[in-house]
Amino acid sequence: MKIRVALIGLCSALLLAGCSSSPSVKAPTELAPLEPIYTLKKNWQVKTETMPNRDSEGLFFTEDASNLYIATATGYLVALTKETQTRWKDQVVWQAKFASEIVSGPAMLGDQLIVGTAKGLLTALSIEHAQITWQTQLSSEVMSYPVIAQQTIFTRTVDGKLYAVNAITGEVIWIVEHEMPTLSLRGSPAVLYSENVLYVAWESGMIQALSASSGTLLWERRIATPKGRTDLERIVDVQASLVMKEGRLIALGYHGKLVAINPLNGQFFFEKALSGYRDFVVDSDRIYVVDDTDVLYAFDLFSGAIQWTQTAFKGRLVGDLNFYQKDLLVTDGWGYLHWVNRVQGTEFARVKHSNEYGDGNRILRIKVSGKQLTLLDGEGVITQYDVEPSSLALFKKEYPSSEGSFFNSFF
Length: 411
Known about the structure:
- It is built from four helices and 34 strands.
- It has helices spanning 11-14, 88-91, 391-398, 405-408, and strands at 38-47, 62-63, 67-71, 76-81, 92-97, 102-109, 112-117, 121-126, 132-137, 147-149, 152-157, 161-166, 172-177, 192-194, 197-201, 206-211, 217-222, 243-245, 248-252, 257-261, 268-273, 281-282, 286-290, 296-300, 306-310, 322-324, 327-331, 336-341, 347-352, 354-355, 358-359, 363-369, 372-377, 381-389.
- The longest helix has 8 residues, at 391-398.
- The chain starts with 10 loop residues before the first helix and ends with a helix.
- Mean pLDDT is 87; it is low at 1-25.
């Protein structure tokens, strides 16, 4: 069995396995001055423990009608009421502490939450009291976010195994194994389920389609091929989550390509030379991608033609991309949130996240709900904000002029 190696030497560029959550020592692009359009109204803030950035890739917010749920790589699973409380202690409905790090989840299945741990445990807990329903020991770290379909949990372990697990009993239904490279980025993206087919991105640079019922291989295509003289130069990976849109499977390879694949047979609709590893977003017209130098691109979904390029965030450790209503929401390694126009690629708004322990903290995970943002930062602080127009924006709206016409278009 090959072992994944922490790539300490690449920390300054990529925040790979074993890297610190501190921003790159290389000077990032300086931010251009920007008139404040938005401001963040803090609803509440809860502190857990400082997060190791390298183990946050499989962690996401999930929710039900009353609560938000988030796990931390320090072993906490927390339920937080959505209603703003006067005391932070009242914001916490319950919390459970695991003996080992939680590295994936929580995913919701009815009245249960599913998480994976660094010790290889796939665990189901009741939502009401966080009591363990079942635990199944898998072969290694469960870093892939659990995907649930047809009463089955599909998840990956870092040793190259894909598991189908009965969601009711925790019994393993089938296992598929893939040969892993010696070196790769840390993390395992979630599989994509669609119409009884699993689409899997592997660290070898391969995309596979498998039967969800049996794990049988349907097709496979390579989107990243090792090149170069050294092991570091030859690293390939597919860490960005796969996206299915308009009958196209979109994938992005590190030291590879951005591709649109026919999900029926694995043939390329188009391919573009581009290296990246952050999650991208897709709408009905375009694919929005950040490459491994933090340059943003928009590509036409159907032809692959480039629509725009934005270099304003180069070297700023951009995180996974998100949509915010009709715009893009971009986070960077210094705690800034940037709003980018989808059509033009221009930044038009910027705010900075802060907590009681300072500002400039890297945002590890963000959840967008209308005009409300909930985020987890590198200090283990969970914060919920309402996005509101700034005082300047309100002034220009009340006293319109030719200068204020830009502001009026957003409110």
